[in-house]
Design goal:
The complex is a heterotrimer of chains A (236), B (67) and C (251). Chain A has 236 residues and is mostly helical. Chain A is built from ten helices and no strands. Chain C has nine helices and no strands. Chain C is mainly alpha-helical and 251 residues long. Chain C has a single domain, classed as Four Helix Bundle (Hemerythrin (Met), subunit A) (Up-down Bundle). Classes of the chains: A mainly alpha (236), B mainly alpha (67), C mainly alpha (251).
């Protein structure tokens, strides 16, 4: 009896969080191709810009902040479909839902893992692509900082869309459709950070707003994701 | 409060803004009419579908009784 | 108990269907009369604007449509929330019905805004804060409709789109504020788009008439859509079968 009880009492929240995080990161590392896809997409998409607008530095430099941000947004968006897909297909999502752990933290761990393998690499790749687009040198730190906060926020917000569409066989396009409007505030402030930094204007306010978005998303998004996952699992 | 235009011609032209104003009213009323009629048409169609289904059920019952 | 009776009744599709049967002609008559009254008043009898001339007459459509487009979103979200919290079938029916109506009104406010923009600003499309927000609202509506349509299971479709509507509700103020901030940042100095300072009563009364007309029209159309959706969902229940048989007797 005590053994059965011990098995039923939930593990400490933090340990469960770490276990989920570790599992998802391991899965990602064992499938490096999936991890590389958003980065390759980002690279190719950025390559299209000089090919369509012309290679002159004067043309590219003013557009660079916005273009770098929009393409980072699209790269994140494309990676979202895989966030819960494999777990849904092999049934481990159902296990997660009925496990005694708080779903809020499991979801947060999954989103954090997703951000570590997509948002963070995208952020790290961005300065290289910035060079290719002749981004003025004042913009690099701002680009990294704004993308660091922005991609975290996009992973959290996007997870809601991914959870809502995970049970649909062809949910990919629909996912983009429902998530993109929600990304607009992040894009506005994120791109403006880089723009302002290039012009030498202060960026503290915009970064603070992005930080507020992340805080709000950390607090609320996992709850919505948990609800959406329940709906999606019940749908089948 | 009085009619604001000198003539019908003037009313239609609205000192050059006529096409814009009339286009807006035309499009809006087209959409409003559509909004009213599309559920009505849908209701009609649903009732007809249900009727067809009921008839089919009757036929099934008839066949079952004869068998 | 009796105070809540109406709420429980409202949860019954059959009760709703028969209750609203008698409302439809009245709502149709009142909204029709008000729409004609407001249109004639606004088009022919309200004085022209001293700056914009006659093109401002589009306001009598643009403002009510934009108004109801926004309120329609909240009607949809609240219905979705009621459905989620009290597991009320009818609330989901109302939610699903509100989406296409809201999308149509958002579309109307965008189109009338664009047509109004041409004679006023000299351009069909201006990235004005309000227009941009309306465009994003249209995207939200379309996303909810697409999600609703994508599910096989009706229950999942209802709950998922209700949840998305609620997520949108949290986001709308953020989107609106962000777009507003973005616009003040980029507003070209030559264009001053913040219009409508004080509106004279001779122009205001027809506007209020039109807003009231659109409100009643919205209620009418929402009821019509909801009734059609009820018939679709309750198709195999006895009361609908009786109703269908009754309809068959009519010529």
């Amino acid at each position: 009896m005590p053994d059965a009880l011990a098995a039923q009492t939930p593990r400490p929240v933090f340990a469960a969080f770490l276990a989920t995080l570790r599992r998802d990161l391991l899965l990602a590392v064992r499938l490096p191709g999936d991890m590389a896809n958003p980065l390759v997409f980002y690279l190719i998409a950025i390559t299209l810009i000089p090919l369509s607008l012309g290679p002159e530095r004067e043309v590219l430099a003013p557009l660079a902040p916005g273009v770098l941000w929009v393409m980072a947004l699209l790269a994140t968006l494309l990676s979202l479909d895989g966030l819960f897909r494999s777990d849904f297909d092999d049934g481990s999502l159902e296990q997660l839902l009925i496990s005694p752990q708080l779903l809020y933290f499991s979801v947060l761990a999954k989103v954090l893992a997703h951000w570590l393998v997509t948002g963070l690499p995208v952020t790290l790749l961005a300065p290289v692509l910035g060079m290719m687009l002749a981004l003025p040198s004042e913009g690099y730190w701002a680009l990294c900082l704004s993308l660091l906060l922005g991609t975290a926020c996009m992973s959290l917000v996007g997870a809601m869309g991914a959870a809502l569409t995970v049970s649909l066989r062809r949910g990919g396009l629909l996912l983009s459709l429902i998530v993109m409007p929600l990304y607009i505030p992040i894009l506005i402030f994120g791109a403006d950070v880089v723009q302002n930094a290039v012009l030498g204007d202060p960026i503290r306010f915009q970064l603070a707003v992005l930080g507020a978005f992340v805080t709000l998303a950390v607090a609320l998004a996992p709850l919505a994701v948990a609800g959406a996952l329940r709906i999606s699992v019940d749908a089948t | 409060m009085s009619f604001q235009f000198d003539s019908l011609q003037d009313f239609i032209q609205m000192s050059g803004h006529g096409p814009f104003v009339w286009a807006c009213y035309g499009i809006t009323f087209a959409v409003l009419v559509y909004l009213v009629f599309s559920p009505l048409v849908r209701r009609r169609r649903l009732i007809r579908q249900h009727q067809a289904w009921l008839k089919q059920m009757d036929r099934v019952r008839e066949v079952a009784r004869q068998a | 108990m009796s105070n809540w009776q109406w709420f429980h009744r409202l949860g019954s599709p059959r009760w709703f269907y028969y209750k609203t049967e008698g409302w439809v002609p009245w709502l149709a008559a009142v909204s029709g009369i008000l729409l004609v009254l407001g249109t004639v008043w606004g088009l022919a009898f309200a004085p022209p604007d001293y700056q914009q001339g006659n093109s401002y007459r589009i306001i009598y459509l643009h403002v009510p449509a934009a108004f109801l487009a926004l309120i329609g979103y909240y009607v949809m979200a609240v219905a979705g929330a009621v459905g989620m919290i009290w597991r009320m079938k009818m609330a989901f029916v109302v939610m699903k019905s509100a989406a296409p109506i809201g999308a149509a009104l958002t579309f109307l406010s965008l189109v009338t805004g664009a047509i109004w923009g041409k004679p006023t600003w000299g351009t069909w499309w201006e990235w004005d804060a309000r227009i941009t927000s309306m465009l994003i609202l249209l995207f939200l509506y379309l996303g909810i409709m697409a999600l609703q349509a994508a599910f096989q299971s009706r229950d999942a479709a209802d709950k998922a789109s209700a949840l998305l509507a609620l997520i949108g509700t949290v986001n709308i103020p953020i989107i609106y504020k962000s777009v507003d901030w973005w616009h003040t940042l980029h507003q070209p100095a030559t264009l001053k788009l913040t219009s409508a300072p004080t509106i004279h009563s001779s122009m205001l009364y027809p506007l209020l008439t039109m807003i009231l007309a659109f409100y009643i029209f919205y209620a009418l159309v929402l009821i019509l859509y909801t009734r059609a959706e009820i018939l679709r969902r309750e198709g195999r229940t006895q009361w609908v079968i009786d109703l269908v048989k009754e309809e068959a007797k009519k010529p």
